[in-house]
Amino acid sequence: MSEAKALIETEELIQVLHVDDQADFADLTATFLERADDRFTVETASSADGGLERIDERRPDCIVSDYNMPGMNGLEFFEAVRERYPDLPFILFTGKGSETIASEALSAGVTDYLQKGSATDRYDLLANRIRNAVRTRREARRADRQQQLMRLTEFVGDTGGWELDRGSDTVLLTAGAQRAVGRPGQAEIPLEEAIALFHPDDREDIRHTLTRAFETGEELHNTWRLQSGDGDERLIEMTITPVVESGGRVTKLRGAGHDITDRKERRQELEKYETIIEALTDAVYVLNEEGRFTFVSDELVELVGYDRETILGSTPSLIKDEDAVERAKHHLGRLLSSDGPQTVQFEVTIQPCDGDPIVCEDHIGVLPYEGDEFDGSVGTLRDITERKERARKLERQNARLEAFASIVSHDLRNPLMTAQGRLELAQADCDSPHLDEVGDAVDRCQALIDDLLALARSGNSLGTTEPVTLSELAEECWRTTPSADATLAVETDLTISADRSRLQQLFENLFRNAVNHGGSEVTVTVGKIADGFYVADDGAGSPDEERDDIFEAGYSTADDGTGFGLAIVKEIVVAHGWEIRVTDSETGGTRFEIIGIKTAH
Question: What letter does residue 412 receive in the DSSP assignment?
C-alpha cells in the first residue's frame, strides 16, 4: 500500500460544499466526487448567498465554487467566506479560464484553482485537490494543538515533549522530557538510545508505533513503561502526532508524555473498592459535605425507584421523612465528635418513588478527612421490612404459644392431679390391675405435659452460660433417671461453657432415651471427641432410615415414649450454637455426638 493511499484510508469523512449556478452541473460534480472517494459527502448551492447560509448552518471541510455566477462572483464569495472562516479551504472550479483570473484567485489566497473540463479525469483531479487541501488544514490544526501541548508540558511535573526527525533518527527532548528520563541538560539523543530507556518488552511495540505514525499520518496513543536511571519504573502515557510538510509527506513526529503511574495505582485501588461495592447486596450511598448525594449504587436506585440522575445532587429528604433526616444529622454529629463512634446504625423508613414505605437499617460513617474540613459521609441501607414482619409474626406466635403453655400447665395439669389423687384413693380401697393401667396412663400424660412445656417455653432461648464440668453434671442427671439395672460410664473430664439447666435437660433426655430403647441393663457412656462430647449406648441401635426423623417433635419408636425428648435435645443444641449428629456406637448401639463446642478456661 502506498503512503498516499494509506493516509487517505485513515482520514476522517470530508464534507464538501459545491456552489454553482448551474444546478445540473453541480449535481453531476457531486456524483463524480462521491464516486471517486466514498468518504466525500457533497452538498450543493446555486448561489453565493445560498452557500453562505449553508456554511453558517453546517460548516463544511472544503468549498468548491464556480467563478462566473449572478450577484456575487466566485472571488467575492471567497472574500466573504474568509471574513468569517479564515482557514476554510476554498477551491475555485470554473469554466472561465484565463491566466488573469487564476493569478487574481491565487493572489487573493484561494487554496487552489482548477478549470472545468469535459473529461472525467478532471473530477478525479478535483477530488485529489480537495483531499490535499483538507488534509493540509487538518494537519496544520493538529500541529498547532501539539505545539500548545508541547508548551504545556513544560509546566506540568513528570511530563515532557519530544520531536523525532525522520531523516536523522535523532530525538530532541524538551526540558520536561529530560527530567523525566533522567538526562538533564541532554537535549538530543539517538532514537535507539531513547527506545532503550523503556522496558525491554515495550521496545518493539514502540518501534512499530513510530513506523505506523510515519506511514499513515495517524495521531497515536499508547502507554509504555519508562525505566529511569535510578531503577524506578514509571508508566508513561504517550501521544504521538505526525508533522506533515511539503508534498504531504510525514517528516517528523512530535510527542508528549505524561506520568500516570500514580493515576494507574489509584484506578486499581478504586476498581478494587468498586468490586467490593458491586458485591454488596446492601444499597450504598455517599453524601458530600453539603449533605447531597454524590454516589448511589445500583441497589439503592432499585430500592427507591428513582432514576440515578434524580437522586444525584438531591438531599436525603427525597427518600426520607423529616424525622429520619433529623436523626441522621444527630448521629452524624456523634460521628464527628472527638469521642464519637466510628459508625452508627439505626432504623429508618424509606419513602420510595412508588409503593409502600420500606423499613431499613441505615449504617453510616464519615469519609476520611484531614484537619477540620469534613468531606462527607458514606452509608448503606439494608431492607429489613421482611425481617421486621417475621419478628412481628414470631411475637404473635410466641404469644399464642405462651397462652397454650398456660392452658397446658394449669387447665390440664390440675385435672390430672385430681385424677392422680382419686386413683390413689381407689387403689387403697381395692386391688385391680385396671387401676395400675390407669396409673400408667396418668403418668404418661404428666410426662407429655412436662415435655410440651419444656419445648414450648424454652425453645431456642438460653439463660446465663457458665463453665460446666460434664462428668459432675452427667452423674447428677443419672441419679434422677429411672434406670433400673442400667449403668453409666463417664470417660471425660471436659469442662465446657453452657447454660447449666438446659444442658441438664439434654443429658436427662438422652439418658431416658437410651434406657427406653436400650433396655433396663443398657450401659450409657459419656465421652470426649475432638470438638465436643458424645452420649452412646450398647443397645440395639437405630436404623439408618430413621435417623432423619428422630429429632422431629412427636416421633417415637418406644411404646411409652412421648416423642418430644430428642426434639428438646435438638432445641438445646441449636440454642448453644452447636451441632448434633447420630451414628453407631462401638458396641452397635446409638451414639449422639454434640460438636462445635467451646471449652471453658
Answer: I
Grid coordinates representing 9 are: 484510508
Q: pTM of the entire structure?
A: 0.34
Q: Rounded to the nearest 5°, which phi and psi values hold at 590?
A: -110, 140
Radius of gyration for the chain, computed over Cα atoms and rounded to the nearest angstrom: 46
Closest of 541, 571, 570 to residue 557, by C-alpha: 541
User: Angle at Cα 499 formed by Cα 493 and Cα 501, nearest 5°?
Assistant: 95
The pLDDT tens digits for 180-204 are 788 888 888 999 999 999 999 999 9
Burial group, residue 411, by CB count within 10 angstroms (0-12, 13-18, 19+): exposed
Measure the CA–CA gap between 513 and 110, rounded to whole angstroms: 110
Instruction: Kindly tell me the sign of the dihedral angle through the C-alpha atoms of 404, 407, 410, 412.
Output: negative
Residues paired with residue 584 on neighbouring β-strands, in sequence order: 590
**Which residues are CB-neighbours of 394 under 8 A, at least 6 positions away?**
none
Which residue(s) pair with 363 in the sheet? 345, 380
Q: 290: burial class by Cβ within 10 Å (0-12, 13-18, 19+)?
A: exposed
Which residue ranges of the chain lie beneath pLDDT 70? 1-11, 96-98, 142-159, 228-231, 245-248, 263-280, 368-372, 394, 398, 400-413, 444, 447-461, 484, 553-564, 600-601
